[in-house]
Design goal:
The protein is α+β, with helices and mostly antiparallel strands. Helix content is 43%, strand content 11%. Strands 2-1-5-4-3 form a five-stranded antiparallel β-sheet.
Amino acid sequence: MDRAELADFLRTRREALQPEDVGLPRTRRRRTGGLRREEVAALSSVSTDYYSRIEQQRGPRPSEQMLAALAQGLRLSLDERDHLFRLGGYDTPKRVSRTDHINPGMQRIFQRMDDSPAQIINHLGETLAQNRLSTLLIGDQTRHTGMARSLAFRWFTDPTERQLFPADDHAQHGRTVTAQLLAAHTRHPDDPRVTGLVEALLKRSEEFADIWRRHPVIGPYCAPKLIEHPRVGLMELHGQSLIDPDQSQVLTVFTASPGSPGSPGSPGSPGSPGSESYDRLQFLSVLGDQLL
């Protein structure tokens, strides 16, 4: 264990992490630029005294479990986490892509998305964060627990998950979420959460099993999505995604094109879903808390 380097590394990462990166408010009376020791301790579920002693090069050697908790609390990347373990005198952990915590860069971009529905999803299809418009559009996707956190699990086991989408689109949605799960399974074959989710779905859903046997693969292009909102009606939305390869997270922002002239029945033309989607999305924002 390199006690001095460990303490210095934790201090520099704490000072580089801003309150906004972890969802904390920045008050006018705040003097420090980064996080306080007590804030990092709370984020890591350890006592302030214990964390302070590590930064002061005192106390016992932190356990592997403690270093893992500090890595999550400080929102370290996988490479930074591995470095932290080496400073603590341990082998680096096996890289299993459990991404419950959003990395600071992704968080900063997400927090600036206040005029369009936006959400952050991990490789399992679990929604880690939603902004206000996303919740208004598709409901609170972060409330689920267990395997139900995964969109793929809900799509094939909970009929209510399909209510927002026209029945004619259900088959394509099923293929898309299965292809996304297959991609995660291919990239992370040793991730027990991925394999557990696949095994559970193969047992519970014949529809999923049939699609899975066909090895569905999707490209980077995401076709416009139709959402039939119970209060504002049918909307044609375009999803733009920002991928963070290191954290296996995707930030998706939904937008609607303002109505413009076009051929009858084409997106954006009068009488088509695209021609009114922009106005309906704006109306959804106006309705606001009435729908929450």
